[in-house]
Amino acid sequence: MNASITAVGSLTVDEVREVLIAATAAPSLHNTQPWRFRCTPNAIELHADPDRALKAADPDHRELVLACGAALLNLRLAIRSFGAVPDVRQFPEHERPTLLAAVRACARRPATPAERELAAAIPKRRTNRKPFREDLVPTVLQEHLRQAAEAERGWLAVLDRSQRSVLSALSRKAHQAQLDDPEFVAEWQHWTGRSDHERDGVPARTSGPTPEPQDEFVVRDFSGGNSRTRVAGKDFEPEPLICVLGSFQDSRHAQLQAGMAMQRVLLTATANGLASSFLSQVVEVPDTRRELRELLGCGLWPQIVLRIGYGSPVPATPRRPLEDVVTAEHRG
């Protein structure tokens, strides 16, 4: 058994291990996995890991906090799946800037069917960069995704055809701005196109088709330039479901909340047989993020752009072992 894992509150050692595995299954920019966990006798602490921040793509650590929010949502759901009630304190100590949340496992209460369904979706969720089928996502499922975001005090805007056209132009503008930045390119090359035995970064096997001029949306080449997947003509679905997920403020607290909203949307999609991927360039470049905010009416802060649809199965990306991300305070 991992020496860094101890019983926490009402959770046994084995249960703590399982909820930590669930937490680390969250998505993160370039699969950097920018989190650390500390187990105390009373709580599981979630910390940001600034050593895994992407200086070029994410200089203000906004996407790092989003990823940690996604991990926090997974942690909450996994604790509920064991019949415990998570008591979450966000940013509990100002003097510890990396500490984003402390989660206590309180009184026992059986999980609801909806909670169990979302918890079961955690290991099934994948970032699917492949083309989706042409089947449209039904309106009722789109509404379920909106409700999932709202349940975590976020919002989800489904873009119409004219808005998608604007977003397409913004994605090309952002993509070119990043390619013109040597620091971004070097960072990108470092984290993508990795071999199967590496435990972080994006493996080449999980990349999508080679980006081509006819694609409506600019997609990144995660293969490290080694993708062999090419499709004649238009690679991707003609009527994609493109959603912008965001927050009502742009503070660190709001970004952490948006990460939880993002993950609840992704898990709701997974539980309903949908696949998803990210179109991150637009929100990573300040100018295009500002233009996207204007497109949405200026009152809301876009945090991430999602592409959702019906896809074929794809492999999971690797995760670092728990001993690399977990420490413990043992009972004296």
TrEMBL record:
Region (Disordered): 192-217
Comp. bias (Basic and acidic residues): 193-202
Protein name: Nitroreductase family protein
Organism in which the protein naturally occurs: Saccharopolyspora oryzae
